[in-house]
Every structure is written in structure tokens, then in C-alpha cells.
Amino acid sequence: MLRPVRAERRTSPRRSPAPLGARLPLVAAAVVAAGLTAACGPSSQPVGSAAPSAAGQSSQALASGTPSATGSAEASPTASASPSASATALPSSSPTPSTGARSGSATPAKPPRTSAAPEPAKIPGPGYDGSADAQKQIDAALRAAKADGRTVLLDFGANWCGNCKAADRVFGQSQTAAILGASYHLVKVDIGGNSSANSALLRKYSPSGGTYTMPVLVVVSPSGTVRTDTHVTGNPSLTSEGINAFLRQWAS
């Protein structure tokens, strides 16, 4: 009796499963690849391009926890804005010409001028000129006094008057002449003759009247105001000390 013969099933020898340590890198690579595909979308690069290396770099970035793509995108606007800012600041940093450079080429300042001392006023000689126009001389002396700031000294006297001659001698001395020339315009008016005009001038500048003791010395300011009148105050001593003290007291 024939038995049906069952064909023996050929089975290939059973392969032993790969060790767990060898399977873990493959699983991790698959997980990373799946994450990149989900985050970035399918790659548009053809097969065989450099995408795998980029994926490897991206996986390294993901593994280190630093988003390289996002960080570079955020840093790029700042980096591109930096050149424009520096370009804007460059014109303002251009050197400005210093004042010292300009002053070096400027003309050196001239030394201040020293004003020369005014020349002494002219002093009339001894005696009194009865023919002179006393009013004209007084007017000229007042104009000169306004111009140079000196004071006018009117000397009313006569050629026959002994005191007038004594005063003339003092006026001719060097020290007294220096005071007169520096501070006064001296006008001598003859009142010893018959000149009514000169007598009127005496009464104008010495209006107190009465008997006059010659010489009558009247100090007048440049504006024509009488400052002192010896017919009122009395004559100083007709010596160099007395007259010099009087002249210094009323000098301008």
C-alpha cells in the first residue's frame, strides 16, 4: 500500500537576529530622516546630489540643540545692516580742519599802537598884548581844550603891574612851564589899557565886581564853565611853589 509521500518543506536555515547594539543606529537614523522630511518637506534635489551630507549636518545641528538654519536666517539681517550703518557713520568721521591750522596761515596780529604823548600847549611870552583880539584867543583856547581835554587858564593883568611881572617870571620857569604845557591853554588878557572889550571879558568871567587885584587868574573848563576865580578866592603866593600848587590843584 502506497503512502502518500509528503514533500518535505525545505526551509532555509534560520538567521539569527542582529544584535540590539547594531540595530539602534539604524533606528536612530530612520527617526532623524523622518523628522527632517516632516520639518523641511521632500527634497527637490535629484538623487545623487549633496543632500545627504546636508541632512547629516542638519542632524548634527538637531542633535546639539542649536537650530543652525533659523540662527543664520535671524543673524543675516543684522549682518547686512551693519555695513550700511558703518557707511553712514564714515562721512561724519571725516577730519575737520582745526583752528590752529587756519591760524597758522593767518597774518600775525600787529602789536597794539602806543599813543604818543600830546605835544605841550603853546605858552605865551611875558607881558600882555593890548592889540590882540582876546575874545578870539579865548574861543580858540576853548576849542583846543575840547579837543585835547586840557583846561583854559585866563590871566587878566597889565604890563605896568608888579605882581603880574612876578607871575610872568614864574610862568617862564621850566617846572611851571611843564605844568602849563601839559594841562592848560594859557590866554593873557590886557586890562591895563583902555580896552572896553577886555574889561567886559573880565566882568564876564569874574562877575563879582568891585576892585580887582591883579593878576586875576580864572580857570575855565572846556565847556566854558568857570572852575575858580582868584578875585574871589585870593591869589596864591606868586612864587614857583605857590603858583605850581595852584596849577596842580586845578589841572584837568
Textual characterization of the structure:
By secondary structure, the protein is an alpha+beta fold. It has ten helices and four strands, in the order αααααβααβαββαα. A four-stranded mixed beta sheet has the order 2-1-3-4. Helix 7 packs parallel to helix 10. The termini are far apart. About 28% of the residues have low confidence.
Any idea what the shape is? globular
Secondary-structure element order, N to C: HHHHHEHHEHEEHH
Number of strands: 4
Radius of gyration: 62 Å
The unreliable regions are 31-95, 97-101
Strand percentage lies at 5-15%
Return the structural class.
alpha+beta
Characterize the largest beta sheet: strand count, sense, and whether it forms a barrel. 4 strands, mixed
Helical content (DSSP H or I, runs of 4+): 40-55%
Describe the oligomeric state of these chains in a short phrase: single chain
Average of the residue pLDDT scores: 73
Amino-to-carboxy terminus distance = 177 Å
| Total DSSP helices | 10
Largest sheet, spatial ordering of strands? 2-1-3-4
